[in-house]
From TrEMBL:
The chain crosses the membrane at residues 6-32, 74-98, 118-144, 164-186, 198-220, 226-248, 260-281, 305-328. PANTHER family: CYTOCHROME BD-I UBIQUINOL OXIDASE SUBUNIT 2, CYTOCHROME BD2 SUBUNIT II. Its main location: membrane. InterPro entries: Cyt-d_oxidase_su2. This is Cytochrome d ubiquinol oxidase subunit II. It comes from Leucobacter rhizosphaerae. It comes from the Bacteria. Belongs to the cytochrome ubiquinol oxidase subunit 2 family. Keywords: Cell membrane, Electron transport, Heme, Iron, Membrane, Metal-binding, Transmembrane, Transmembrane helix, Transport.
């Protein structure tokens, strides 16, 4: 397998890791107005991700840096074409991160309510727009090659807001919401745990319906793809995992439910990446204008150097993250929140 193909899948793994890990962070943030009956409840909910949310977001930074280094043409075309959507995502992530750090300063209920709103909307907007973006990458976007090399995106933000793209955004939003609710039930005890499980049952059913529709639509759009059998296999695994997660949550097996949701996210995104392969961006203007992996990749020397760096550093990152989750594995309760916490 060529280094260009290897790095296509490495970038994919990094992005999938981001959506699995930061995905439940988003879901936890979305749950605040629904599960947080008072400030103590909201503190418990936020504390479930308190030690890990910023670590989870580093996966996006590493994925973006790897994409820039391995496929500069892909990076340039996607970030220039999707710049408005990506800007909105960036602002939402900043507001969300700032809110985690500042809401506890205790300057009054109005202050706290404002930052709770920022956490909620900062958790809703990114998965919604990420889902729209990745759905459009699977479907194809209006890109054309330039005379001096590279590609240019000829659409607008409204071009991305097509029915398939919006369904992809809704599906990602629901997946992360369900993922977060199950994580809360996994990390808490008592009434919050019970209410999170109950909500995950209802939201999970809607997620199954939306996910099934999106995966079927994805398969139907790629019936002539050379990777059709892989796309179908990934779609089936994602669907079975999502249904299994719902069943596990219904019977109180939060660990299995969390694993099932994570698996569903992994294989749903893998289906999208395989629908793109062997291209990075399909052109909806003319298939001949599509961006190939080889045509957008960096030099072989650059990819070789990056491969050696990844071989030595990725295991260390995974080990550190696993250790962090192990250290903070204890369940949280209302009693674990200090009386003077804000």
């Amino acid at each position: 397998m060529e280094l260009t193909t290897i790095w296509f899948f490495i970038v994919g793994v990094l992005l999938i890791g981001y959506f699995v890990l930061d995905g439940f962070d988003f879901g936890v943030g979305m749950s605040l107005p629904f599960l947080g009956r008072d400030n103590t409840d909201r503190r418990v909910i936020i504390n479930t991700i308190g030690p890990v949310w910023d670590l989870n977001e580093t996966w996006l930074i590493v994925a973006g840096a790897s994409l820039f280094a391995a496929f500069p043409e892909w990076y340039a075309t996607m970030f220039s074409g999707f710049y408005l959507a990506l800007l909105v995502i960036l602002v939402a992530l900043i507001l969300r991160g700032v809110s985690f750090e500042y809401r506890h300063l205790g300057k009054g209920q109005r202050w706290t309510r404002w930052f709770d709103q920022f956490i909620f909307w900062g958790s809703v907007v990114p998965p919604l727009l990420w889902g729209v973006a990745f759905a459009n990458l699977a479907q194809g976007v209006p890109i054309v090659p330039m005379d001096n090399g590279g590609w240019i995106y000829e659409g607008t933000l409204l071009t991305l807001l097509n029915p398939y793209g919006l369904l992809g955004g809704l599906t990602m939003l629901l997946l992360t919401f369900t993922h977060g609710l199950v994580f809360i039930s996994l990390k808490t005890a008592g009434d919050i745990r019970d209410r999170a499980r109950a909500m995950a049952k209802g939201v999970g059913l809607v997620t199954i319906v939306a996910g099934a529709g999106f995966l079927i639509w994805t398969v139907l759009q790629h019936l002539d793809s050379p990777t059709l059998w892989v796309i179908v296999l990934c779609a089936i695994v994602a669907a079975v995992s999502l249904i299994g997660a719902w069943v596990a949550n219904a019977v109180g097996r939060e660990g299995w439910a969390f694993t099932g949701n994570a698996t569903a996210i992994v294989f749903a995104l893998l289906a999208i990446f395989m629908s793109m392969f062997p291209y990075l961006m399909h052109s909806s203007v003319d298939p001949a204008y599509s961006m190939s992996i080889e045509g957008a990749a960096s030099s072989p020397r650059t990819l070789e150097l990056m491969t050696w760096v990844a071989v030595f550093t990725l295991p260390l990152v995974l080990a550190y993250q696993a250790w962090t989750y192990w250290i903070f594995r204890k369940r949280l309760t209302r009693e674990s929140i200090p009386v003077d916490a804000h």
